[in-house]
Specification:
Length: 349
């Protein structure tokens, strides 16, 4: 299971007026622990108003770069994001977990694939790592990026993407989409059906894409995903990571009484009794068990565990496939226990 370590901030770089990237100094003895695959993220632990919070941030550097860099966009009343954008400085230390995540690309130097990504806002962060990896490590592959923002000024990595276009002519194709600004050689509006069709039917109609990467608000991901499926794109070809979830769609689950829970974390087993009305992860953390978690909103995979006995249902699931659920995997931050006894493990996932 991933572990937290104290890392020193090596650089804080302004990417936009409301976003910074943070470069961490990785000590020699931790280099192997912080080896990552393109698209993964790290969790950052932070004390806010006397309470521990955890936030997940995608790595935007490529594995070949020798850097561990994340991007943080400031959000209104964001406990960590406001601090990172206004107060964090070189020399500060943060508790950073080792990399994890399943929105990944493992390159093949012999591949000759076409990839496409549809991203919005800070959804560019993991895709930057992925596209740079393709360009660096798959010399015969191409990458099409469709990237939505309000304005040029709010576009994270705008200059870096432009520089990559110049460096990898005929391999990297970028279509900027702006909802509040009309710019030359860009699309005005949002990433919706007309945008997807314009890019795939007009700009790149000669290409057949091996994989699609979708990252950003859940609404955008749902829209693009449905369009791709209408085009007979297989589900296994579509990878997605939600940055902003919908606020609807939660399932109402009726559960009465209590359940005896047995939890395994790092080979340590703990048992306790909980009310079935409480979210499973909340009850686990209340017992002082050091279970992994981050967003607590069902959009990362940090709190995933496996049911080995008993049953539970998720109020919302935007991540796990039907096959994974059938194998016993569940997001504990969304889980309501439905059996009188439940055994889960965070180790075997």
């Amino acid at each position: 299971m991933s572990k937290f370590n104290i890392l020193t901030v090596k650089e804080v770089r302004n990417e936009t007026p409301n976003a910074v990237s943070i470069l961490f100094d990785i000590p020699q003895h931790l280099q192997e622990d912080y080896t990552f695959v393109a698209g993964q993220y790290v969790n950052i632990k932070y004390q806010y108003e006397g309470k521990e919070i955890r936030r997940a941030y995608s790595i935007c550097s490529s594995p070949n770069s020798g850097e561990l860099r994340v991007a943080v966009k400031k959000v209104p009343n964001g406990a960590f994001s406001e601090f990172a954008n206004t107060s964090l400085k070189v020399g500060d230390t943060l508790e950073v977990q080792t990399p994890e995540g399943r929105f990944i690309l493992e390159p093949n130097v012999k591949a000759a694939n076409n990839y496409a990504a549809f991203v919005a806002g800070s959804g560019i962060t993991p895709v930057m790592s992925i596209l740079k990896t393709v360009l660096e490590q798959e010399p015969n592959s191409t990458f099409v990026l469709v990237y939505g923002n309000r304005t040029v000024e709010e576009t994270i990595f705008h200059k870096e993407i432009h520089d990559l276009q110049q460096k990898y002519i005929n391999r990297l194709f970028v279509h900027f989409v702006y909802s509040q600004a009309k710019e030359e050689e860009s699309v005005f509006g949002r990433i919706e059906k007309s945008t997807v069709n314009f890019v795939l039917n007009n700009k790149h109609k000669e290409k057949s894409f091996e994989r699609y990467f979708l990252c950003g608000p859940e609404n955008m991901i749902d829209t693009v995903g449905e369009i791709l499926k209408e085009r007979n794109v297989k589900e296994k070809q579509i990878s997605f990571e939600i940055f902003t979830p919908n606020n609807d769609g939660n399932k109402e689950i009726e559960a009465e009484g209590t359940s005896k829970i047995t939890v395994t974390v790092d080979d340590d087993e703990t048992s306790f009794t909980m009310s079935k009305k409480i979210i499973l992860l909340d009850a686990v953390l209340k017992e002082g068990i050091d279970a992994p978690y981050s967003c607590q909103g069902g959009i990362c995979s940090s709190c995933m565990c496996r049911i080995t006995k008993g049953s539970a249902e998720m109020k919302k699931n935007s991540i796990l496939t039907d096959d994974e659920i059938a194998e016993g995997l569940i997001l504990s931050c969304q889980a309501i226990v439905t059996s009188d006894e439940l055994h889960i493990t965070y180790d075997d996932v």
